[in-house]
Design a protein that fits this description.
single chain; alpha/beta; two-stranded parallel sheet; 11% strand
Length: 266
């Protein structure tokens, strides 16, 4: 009479084969998902950079720097930035309260947002602002961006022109043609903006960065969000995934000089 069913040895062999297949396939699936998230992040950066170009074309200038919402508010009407502000590698996108970000956490500019987009996971190159800090707008200011009649009832909006970081290098001005392919616009970051210097060291903590306002700035983007690499968009419109060390080779401002040797990444 024919016996039905598996013996214990046969069952163990089947389990071992399944375990071996899982060990082979799961890393490949994980890499595929990671590759998909990296591609989506690059697409986000491309869209944000396109919004900068749309703003520049409409206003004949680079975007202004609003004191409370920096680049987020000026770009709110140019493209659907609310859909592309977050890298898919970031799981914590809570936008309240105001906070710096990390590899896995978005930064937020609340409570100043007034129901507008206020958080994200990308840092903007400070040298591409067209103007310095703008004062906090009037509570009844309907746009919080432009200098208009309602601003006289609150704090005035400052628009005196370019305002480089104290003692800092020259900002970029339109038109930008030379070196556009090497000028970064947006990059994965833990804060909305950065104005780095060639002498900035690499942070010791590549997970959280080493947030130090008005001091070291490269630590805001020298993070391992995509392995030991970040995604960067450039002013000519292309995007790249770059190793962290290559961040020091980009033209962050008009006076940038690539340091030698490059900082050692921990």
């Amino acid at each position: 009479m024919r016996r039905h069913g598996f013996t214990l040895v046969e069952l163990l062999v089947v389990i071992a084969i399944i375990a071996l297949l899982m060990a082979i396939l799961l890393p490949a699936l994980s890499r595929a998902r990671e590759s998909g998230r990296r591609a989506k992040c690059l697409s986000n950066l491309r869209s944000l950079t396109q919004s900068v170009h749309w703003y520049a074309n409409d206003c004949n200038s680079l975007i202004p720097r609003e004191v409370n919402l920096l680049w987020v508010a000026p770009l709110a009407g140019y493209g659907q930035i609310e859909k592309v502000r977050f890298c898919p590698e970031v799981r914590d996108t809570n936008e309240k309260p105001a906070m710096q970000g990390s590899v896995t956490k978005a930064w937020s500019l609340s409570p100043y947002a007034k129901n507008r987009p206020d958080g994200g996971t990308y840092a903007f190159n400070y040298s591409l602002y067209s103007a310095g800090y703008r004062s906090q707008p009037s509570p009844i200011d309907e746009d919080a961006i432009l200098d208009d009649a309602d601003d006289q009832n609150g704090l005035p909006m400052a628009s005196a022109g370019p305002a480089p970081l104290p003692g800092g290098p020259k900002l970029y001005h339109l038109p930008i043609a030379a070196r556009a392919a090497t000028i970064p616009v947006f990059v994965d970051g833990i804060w909305p903006e950065l104005g780095p210097s060639p002498g900035d060291p690499a942070p010791m903590d590549l997970e959280a960065g080493f947030y130090a306002p008005n001091q070291v700035q490269m630590d805001r983007v020298c993070i391992k969000r995509h392995g030991k690499a970040v995604n960067v968009s450039f002013y000519d419109g292309h995007v790249e995934n770059l190793s962290l060390q290559k961040l020091w080779t980009l033209n962050w401002n008009q006076d940038w000089r690539t340091p030698s040797p490059l900082p050692k990444i921990p």
